[in-house]
Amino acid sequence: MKRRTISIASAIICCVMGAANISARTHKSITWEKFKASGPELKQVGWLATRHSKDIASSDWSIGCETLDRDYARFSTYKDYVGELGAKHGRLQSGWAKCEKKKGVYEFAWLDESIHGLKEIGVDPWVCLCYGNPVYKSDVRLGSGLGPLVQSKEGYAAWLKYVEATVTRYKDVVTEWEIWNEPFGQAENYSVMLLDTAELIRNIQPKAVIIATAIHDKDRDVCLELLKKKGKLDLVNYWAYHPYTRNPDSSYVHVEKMQKQIEAYSPKYKLYQGEVGCPSILEWTHALSNYPWTEYSQPKWNLRRMAGDRVRGIRCNVFTMIDLRYYNMQQSFGMIRSNLKLDFIYKRPTFYAVQHMMTFFDDAVKPVGILECDSDSKRKITVAGFDKKGTSVSLLWFSDKIPDDEISWDKVDLTVKGVTYKDPVYVEMITGKVFELAKGAWMSAEGNTVLTQLPVWDSPMMLVERTQVELRK
Description:
Layout: H1 8-26, H2 30-37, E1 44-47, E2 61-64, H3 75-85, E3 89-93, H4 96-99, H5 109-120, E4 124-129, H6 147-150, H7 153-170, E5 176-179, H8 187-204, E6 209-212, H9 217-229, E7 238-241, H10 252-263, E8 270-276, H11 297-311, E9 315-318, E10 324-326, E11 329-331, E12 336-338, E13 344-347, H12 349-360, E14 365-371, E15 373-375, E16 381-388, E17 391-398, E18 410-417, E19 424-428, E20 433-436, E21 442-445, E22 448-456, E23 461-465
Parallel strand pairs: 2-3, 2-9, 3-4, 4-5, 5-6, 6-7, 7-8, 8-9
Antiparallel strand pairs: 1-20, 10-11, 12-13, 14-16, 15-18, 16-17, 17-23, 18-22, 19-20, 19-23, 21-22
């Protein structure tokens, strides 16, 4: 057998060329190419047009721009893509430890970049005031205990002084403030922080919108009772929650429970889905870990969560804009895939899915509620009803199981009650493909719509009047 030999120079060239080819491949999403090549067995008539954030008058959609305070991502890497996505709000974390590295000396330049940067592209920043500060012997990371901060005379005074400086600096740009992030099981300390911090914000910015962060139900009871006791229930506007469940549709029973809990104290209170998303790979820690997520199931999950929130009139923040390089892992929730150097690699399919939802469902599209439907399918179908300029809009999907990796549709006969159409089209919301419905495949009569052999899968698809859909040019 002849032995093949290769020169060192040739080997180097091969390695460089191979690395270049690998690099080129990483900039192309194979999953997105497969999504674009797929579709139900209908005649395509075009692609759903999208809009920049600047071109959308108003909406409640928010995108996560978190963890810049701990340098897990770089704002400049994805700034332009936020506007392209169509979000009208962006969640930031204020990063006390990054702002005050020396006692009494504030460095806001890094936060200026993201707050003013979002505003420049038509996105309203809202700020989560957090976390602790090692300078005052409290922790900078997620899950940090509040005790060392709230129970420290010097540390707590420094916290309130930092909040005062931050709100004063940005009060002409930021109108919504979230107090801390996920202090689960720390009700006694968080209730004190919530009361004192909210009062301070109100003194500086009387019309500020204040959001109590995600906590356990029992913790929320403690906070509500303290606010009631002090006669300060009006300090808080929203109560955030972070519903990380494998089936996004399964959390709404608990959401209804939370709604009743807060309304018992004030009819003005509203819920804010303040942070939730889905990984694109199997992750071993953090939310939704130990499950084999992929770039196929991720956009389905995000669309189902967004549709479920939107039809219930709940403000929705999608986590998150780009992958985050945590101290112990690279987290894969991003609309954008990045590497360990925080570089842009490619837009995931979920970017386009979220973009289609955000740019179509602005404030001109009003939620009607969950609609009744009858079908011949053994699976549960959720139908979310909306109104756009006096016309019906419906989102339909299989909601009984965790989103899977299949790109396939079941043909279903169903009747959707309470909606009628004159000339509907079918929109697949991940790719944005717009399809015709054959004349014999649907009929509206007596306030209902009957659809025959309609393609349905475990991701929202939209039925909407042709006149209400702008096609990409």
